[in-house]
Amino acid sequence: MSAKPGGSPERTVTLDIHLLGRDYKVACKEHEREELMQAVTFLDQRMREIRSGGKTAGVDRIAVMAALNIANDLLRERRAPAAAGASVDGDAARRRIQSMHAAIDQALAGQDKLF
C-alpha cells in the first residue's frame, strides 16, 4: 500500500467501469478515482468514434486502435514546440497515461480466451 504525502496509507478501491457497452472492474488508488473515470470517459469516446467509422470490428481491435491513436496524439504533442508560456505537467500526464493503460489492460483482459 502506498502512502499519501501526509504519510497515511492509501486505500485501493474497485470501480465498475463501462467501455463500449461492456462492464469491467478496475482497481485504483482512491485519489486516482476521478482521473481514472476521466480516462475511461475519454477512452470510451475514442472507441465509439472508431466503431462508428465502421472499419474495425471487435472490442479488442477497437481498444488497440484507440490506444494507438491516443499514443500517437501524445507523441505528436511531445514533438510540438511548447506554446508560449505553456507548460506540461509531466507527473500528471504520466498518471493519466497509467490510468488509461490500466483501463485498456482491464478492457482487454479475458479477450484472449475468446479466440
In short:
The chain is α+β, with helices and mostly antiparallel strands and about 120 residues long. It is about 50% helix and about 15% strand. The protein is built from three helices and two strands.
Explain what you see.
The chain is an alpha+beta fold. The protein has one domain (12-114). Helix content is 52%, strand content 14%. A hairpin with a 2-residue loop joins strand 1 and strand 2 (22-29). Helix 1 crosses helix 2 (59-79) and helix 2 (59-79) runs antiparallel to helix 3 (90-108). The longest helix has 21 residues, at 59-79. The mean pLDDT is 82.
Mean pLDDT score, rounded?
82
Gyration radius from CA atoms, angstroms: 16 Å
Count of beta strands? 2
Structural class by secondary-structure content: alpha+beta
| Main sheet record | 2 strands, antiparallel
Helix count, per DSSP? 3
Which consecutive residue ranges, at least 5 long each, have pLDDT under 50?
none
Silhouette: flat
Cα distance spanning the termini: 36 Å
In percent, how much strand structure appears in the residues? 5-15%
Strand order of the largest sheet: 1-2
How many separate domains make up the residues? 1
What is the string of SSEs from the N terminus onward?
EEHHH
> Considering DSSP H and I runs of 4 or more, what fraction of the residues is helical?
40-55%
